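Review this fold:
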Amino acid sequence: TSQPLLGRELRAAQEAESRDGRRRVFRLTAEQVACEVPAYGKFVAEQIAKLGRNHPLVRTQFFSEELDAVGGMFPPERLALMRGTHPRRHAPEAGKIYALLVDVAGEEGAPLDAPMHPGEPLSGSSRDATALTVVEVDLTTLADDLLRAPTYRVVDRRAWVGVRHASLYGQIKALAEHWGVRYLVVDATGVGAGLASFLERALPGRLIPLTFNLALKSRLGWDFLSIIESGRFKDYDEGQGDPWLLQPAQTEQAQFFVQLRHCQMEILPGPQRHLRWGVPEGRREASTGQRVHDDWVLSAALCAMLERQPWSLPAPTLVVRAADPLRQMDGESHW
């Protein structure tokens, strides 16, 4: 970015160049290096396939492109990559693999005790929601020599505001059983710790708890960007046009894309390249004045935790058909 020493020295050298015409800046890209080292070009191509050409690490490390240290995390071209063509579903399909991604909110003083109905507005609420995203895990992209990772398709969403965690536990457990989930990723930070503990007892071997800190949330953000940029995160198509053009209260998906548009990222100085990201506190949607949270975005980003699971392609099925006795009479045997 422009803030660290490298960025400052780059600008100083460019200013000196403009004064005396003596070249001081030599900016190389992966294409130039690949002309002399083909193996490096192959390596970079693999990284682009995994992370995407617009991933911040690809842009800076391989193409010497400077980033704004602070800016929008989901520009229009990145949002476009998230658009899928599959329909929304409320029940599992046979043979598919599913996971639940849950960002947990508080329960203080809430009168509500049931999930919000589809399309019910939550953006105007002063409190975060417990947001649940259902994803289908498509393992076919494991066979891709460059990707070697699953694809995640959002198929459904649920939200609760101010629900008591005892009630929330029963409803999330029922949803996990309804979808027959392979994994349940839960934000176990703070108020979510107790809920995660109960779910772990009810669904042994399937719960992936996540306790946020700066380093872990940074890694989650980088990994989520990699999944999106490599075309492996797809949202459902509700057939209502571009979700980011709908009013926030119309659908859960529209609320999700409103949050994405308001989500900011900041690359912190230092060798760790920590990424601080989220919707700034107190942010409101200009067209409606409604508060904008980032519960849907955090819920979706939890799919990055699924990247670390031991996925494998299903074994091929061998089908053997017995010989046709009628054809055997003609001196043929067909298997």
The CA atoms of residues 79 and 108 lie 34 Å apart.
